[in-house]
Inverse folding.
């Protein structure tokens, strides 16, 4: 971590949040609680749809633009303020901060990008709030983090900072934090902060890819196509995202496809070291790349590498619902040997005449896999699903739009979360 500047942060802003009473649980909560609309306690932080950006949003974006070129310094100083002012919070973070130190700016940029779009921002914040339960985050931790954030911004946003900017950021952070706190309180009523899960099998498909199957210590409700965060005993407090590789099973077992990547602490531990009997921790399920059973639209699925895992789960989900909608799968890999699950998919194709599986082998998944889709079709009546490396998702979305699939019918996992998967 870079050494923080010696000059103290300006201002003594105090951020106070009030944890609202947790709601009473419903008699039959859904497997995955749906996001709800939130009021705007900031008094105008969120602009109405189609309206001009709010005054606070303009100020916040100006601050973010100024600190973007010096993001490393801002992030280092922020954590220095958190840990020196509140050393008890250090235990909530991993021992090595290499990845964690970058997440603050990414979260801020995501919030800034959607600051006037509560339909996008509020569900994002609610996922953050409920997901932070697994770290041990409590309502009383938020003010300390907010004060450190204001201190770091006031130190580095010299040109755009002043009373107006400070007030805008305090209002924004108060609103953001309250949404997260409320989401965590609601989530606490319907599910645990994490699940313990024992490894029951470890199938090494290639030298770098393993299928890891675990048994949670209590029921784990999820939907095919979703993903979870996972922590290993070898790297405490380091969590990474992995998609479920099957639809919910009657025996309650969960499977993940894991590829060991360079400098991937969690993935390497799972592929090289995990064995039956080891106990992992799972966070709550997340993700909206799921099958819409209210429509019979065809499904166009692009899976690159281990990104085939959630697509396989969705195929099983369609089959279990007795549907016969056309499902077209393009399974991409760099080499034939990397098509580690092709036999399973071809077996599903043999059992289900509505399923078509096309392997695509190329050194350039980013361009070749989406291009291969354009050689077939038409796809105007299909919903599209993309899963794989972040670069492939970005290029795939662009390619699908070019061949006429509307953006609202293209689904994929959150790219900003996939970037940190390793």
């Amino acid at each position: 971590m870079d050494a923080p500047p010696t000059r103290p942060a300006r201002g003594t802003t105090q951020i106070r949040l009030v944890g609202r009473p947790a709601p009473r649980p419903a008699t039959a909560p859904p497997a995955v609680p749906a996001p709800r609309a939130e009021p705007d306690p900031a008094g105008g932080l969120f602009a109405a749809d189609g309206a001009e950006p709010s005054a606070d949003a303009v100020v916040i974006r100006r601050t973010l633009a100024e600190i973007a070129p010096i993001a490393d310094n801002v992030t280092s100083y922020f954590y220095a303020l958190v840990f020196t002012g509140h050393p008890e919070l250090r235990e909530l973070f991993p021992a090595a901060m290499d990845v964690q130190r970058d997440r603050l700016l990414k979260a801020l940029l995501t919030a800034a990008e959607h600051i006037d779009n509560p339909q996008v921002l509020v569900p994002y914040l609610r996922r953050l709030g409920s997901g932070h339960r697994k770290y041990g985050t409590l309502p009383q931790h938020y003010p300390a983090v907010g004060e450190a954030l204001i201190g770091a911004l006031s130190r580095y946003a010299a040109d755009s900072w002043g009373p107006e900017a400070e007030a805008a950021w305090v209002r924004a952070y108060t609103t953001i934090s309250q949404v997260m706190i409320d989401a965590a309180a609601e989530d606490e009523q319907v599910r645990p902060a994490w699940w313990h899960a024992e490894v029951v099998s470890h199938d090494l498909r290639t030298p770098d890819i393993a299928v890891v199957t675990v048994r949670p210590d209590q029921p784990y409700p999820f939907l095919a196509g979703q993903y979870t965060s996972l922590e290993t005993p070898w790297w405490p407090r380091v969590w990474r995202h992995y998609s479920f590789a099957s639809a919910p099973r009657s025996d309650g077992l969960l499977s993940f496809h894991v590829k060991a990547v360079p400098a991937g602490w969690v993935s390497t531990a799972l592929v090289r070291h995990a064995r039956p009997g080891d106990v992992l921790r799972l966070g709550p399920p997340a993700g909206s790349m799921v099958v819409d059973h209210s429509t019979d639209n065809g499904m166009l699925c692009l899976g690159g590498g281990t990104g085939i895992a959630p697509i396989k789960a969705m195929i099983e989900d369609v089959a279990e619902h007795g549907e016969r909608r056309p499902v077209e799968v393009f399974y991409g890999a760099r080499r034939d040997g990397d098509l580690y699950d092709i036999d399973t998919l071809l077996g599903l194709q043999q059992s289900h005449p509505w399923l078509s599986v096309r392997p695509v082998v190329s050194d350039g998944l980013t361009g070749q896999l989406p291009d291969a889709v354009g050689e077939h079709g038409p796809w105007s009546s299909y919903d599209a699903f993309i899963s794989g490396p972040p670069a492939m998702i970005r290029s795939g979305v662009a390619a699908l739009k070019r061949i006429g699939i509307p953006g609202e019918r293209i689904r994929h996992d959150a790219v900003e979360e996939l970037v940190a998967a390793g």
Notes: The CA atoms of residues 195 and 391 lie 31 Å apart. The first strand starts at residue 195 and ends at 206. The domain at 55-188 is CATH 1.10.490.10 (Globin-like).
